[in-house]
Amino acid sequence: MAIDWNLALAGLGVGFIVGLTGMGGGALMTPILVLVFGIAPLAAVSSDLVASMVMKPIGGGVHLRRGTVNLQLVKWLVIGSVPSAFVSVWFVHHLPNPARANEIVQYAVGAALLLASLALVAKGAFSGRAKLHAGDVTTIQIHPVRTVMIGVFGGVVVGLTSVGSGSLMMVLLLILYPMLTASELVGTDLVQAIPLVASAALASIAFGKVQFDVTTSLLVGAVPGVYFGARVSSRSPDRLIRPVLAVVLIVSGLKMLKVPTPIVGAVAAVLALVAIFMIVRAYRSAPTEAADADAIEPAT
Fold first, then answer.
1. Phi-psi region of 258 (alpha: psi -120 to 50; beta: other; left: phi over 0)
2. Pick from 106, 9, 19: which is nearest to 66 by CA?
3. Which residues contact 104 (CB under 8 A, 6 or more apart)?
4. Does 70 map to a domain?
């Protein structure tokens, strides 16, 4: 099986972002496969899910070793997400008209990408509430029913589009559990996504149209990418990458929804200027935040 090194390079970049932020797997890889490499939406979703099944444990393992995972949260999320993901994949691959199914999946991915971009904005707005948290990740109060419902929602979206295991579910977790720090949020999300993505991937293998040559090429780059991204993430916040990722999600979503290219280009130009401004502001505020963290750090 020949390796497509262009796909491997795409996998490397996406894998690093997944490890760094917990986001961007399906949100970036699926539109890349469809828009850049010309792969049918159903096959792209299925192939990406199988690749993610391998990527997620690598990043999650790094966070487990560093103690930035709440396993109680993982348990309740999985109760909702695993069955809903499997059923969603089964449903979309049993639609009677394959061409119509591909169109539905493409539009669903586009809508999910735009939701994911809004989720990133919400994550940035809420993340400041977690910066002063200095407690133990295992001590927060769990809300089982609401956590299971987040899992059900994430499972359905991931099963249909491969988007959402990080992009959407992470923000819902942050809203429900605002005391989670950035590294705890990424770690918990990556670990809960392991059985979620595995359920959707196994259903895709059983019912779908996985292109294993595509999956293999993606993994050649994605495996080292997600490992190094997770190592960086477990030690630092993701405020610099978030604006760039938001722009990519919005532009990809608009393209998947078949918005005319001139409109997409104009939107991309405006968003790029906004992202540059946000990155510069985050970079300039970093020394101040570091000084504040030192000021509240308990003496040893």
1. left
2. 19
3. 92, 95
4. yes
Establish if 258 belongs to a structural domain.
no
Task: Look at residue 181 and tell me if it is in a domain.
Answer: yes
pLDDT tens track, the chain, 300 positions: 678 889 999 889 888 877 776 665 667 788 888 888 888 888 888 888 888 888 778 777 877 888 888 889 999 999 999 999 999 889 888 878 777 777 888 888 788 778 777 766 666 655 554 444 444 555 678 899 999 999 998 898 888 887 766 667 877 887 788 777 767 777 888 888 889 989 988 998 888 678 888 889 989 998 898 888 777 765 555 566 667 667 777 887 888 788 887 887 788 788 878 877 776 776 676 555 444 444 444 433
Give dist(CA 265, CA 205) in Å, integer. 36
Number of domains in the chain: 1
DSSP characters over 115-135: HHHHHHHHHHHHHGGGTT--S
Q: Is residue 295 part of a domain?
A: no
C-alpha–C-alpha distance, residues 177 and 184, integer Å: 11
Domain with 85 in it: 5-239
Give the span between the Cα atoms of 34 and 30, in whole angstroms: 6
